[in-house]
Design a protein that fits this description.
Blueprint lengths: L1 E3 L13 H10 L2 E7 L6 H11 L2 E4 L12 H13 L5 E8 L9 H18 L3 E4 L4 H11 L4 E4 L5 H10 L1 E5 L9 H9 L5 E3 L21 H12 L3 H15 L9
Parallel strand pairs: 1-2, 2-3, 3-4, 4-5, 5-6, 6-7, 7-8
Helix pairs in contact: 4-5, 5-6, 7-8, 8-9
Keywords: Hydrolase, Metal-binding
Family: Belongs to the metallo-dependent hydrolases superfamily. TatD-type hydrolase family.
InterPro entries: DNase_TatD-rel_CS, Metal_Hydrolase, TatD-like
Length: about 260
């Protein structure tokens, strides 16, 4: 069995066949799909969807959505977190973080939202799902400053030194479709050589499709194929990888243990 620790199943790309996509994932052995929030407008959506498909969800304001986010959205996020603490499908705060790939983002604005959401994570004792695109060092600095020591660095693509720093801080690293491309040598080396205990699987669907769906829509059932590639890179069985990455997902997002079948 597999856990997709990061899937935007609420995205419009799934409007035509969302339930079929979730069913296909279950048929491929994906026991849980974690759906992160990205903005105030989709908090209720991801919660309802997680309950509909038997998945899980996180709540947060994505750095790419900070240009249109209002300061009051943080108040709403706090209220939504408080209301969700009794919900077994609620697993953490995310997707939050920083992005330095998109040049038009206001750095001060995204830093403000990142910092405020880390404060919420610390206050409520929740793990975080972090966006770290070209921002690994600054994301890690925020985690250190605010004392948040659990969660996932999503779609990790940093150096070995950065990976080891995240791991030493208590974070897990998310790997997905990128590792299926032979040209992605750095990601493949990281996925092959980092401690298995640090790795969780994800799709980021509908984005970051594996090589066999290049430029196509990604879906959560692809975790199984991604895992097969990763098992080959590491020279271990898929069963061992399944057991290990499931345990890792539970460690990164402890509330998942409460709902795992």
């Amino acid at each position: 069995m597999w856990i997709d620790t990061h899937c935007h199943l609420d995205a419009s790309e799934f409007d035509a066949d969302r339930d079929d996509v979730a069913a296909a994932a279950r048929g491929a052995g994906v026991s849980r799909i974690v759906i992160p929030g990205v903005a105030r407008e989709n908090f209720a959506t991801v919660r309802k969807l997680a309950h509909r498909i038997g998945g899980a969800y996180a709540l947060g304001i994505h750095p790419l959505f900070t240009p249109r986010a209002a300061d009051d959205d943080l108040r709403v996020l706090r209220e939504e977190i408080e209301a969700s603490l009794g919900d077994p499908l609620f697993v953490g705060i995310g997707e939050i973080g920083l992005d330095y790939f998109v040049p038009t983002l206001d750095d001060a604005r995204q830093q403000f939202f990142y910092g405020e959401q880390l404060k919420l994570a610390r206050e409520f004792g929740l793990p975080v799902i972090c966006h770290v695109r070209k921002s690994q060092d600054k994301v890690l600095k925020g985690l250190r400053v605010h004392g948040v020591k659990s969660g996932i660095a999503h779609a990790f693509n940093g150096s070995f030194q950065q990976a080891e720093a995240f791991i030493a801080h208590g974070m897990h690293l998310g790997f997905g479709g990128n590792l299926t491309f032979e040209r992605a040598r750095q990601i493949r080396r990281l996925a092959a050589d980092l401690p298995l205990e640090a790795i969780v699987l994800e799709t980021d669907a509908p984005d970051i499709a594996p090589s066999w769906r290049y430029k196509g829509r990604n879906t959560p059932d692809q975790v199984a194929g991604i895992a097969a590639v990763l098992a080959g890179l590491r020279g271990i069985s898929e069963e061992a990888l399944s057991i290990g990455t499931t345990a890792n997902a539970h460690a990164a997002l402890p509330r998942l243990r409460l709902i795992s079948s």
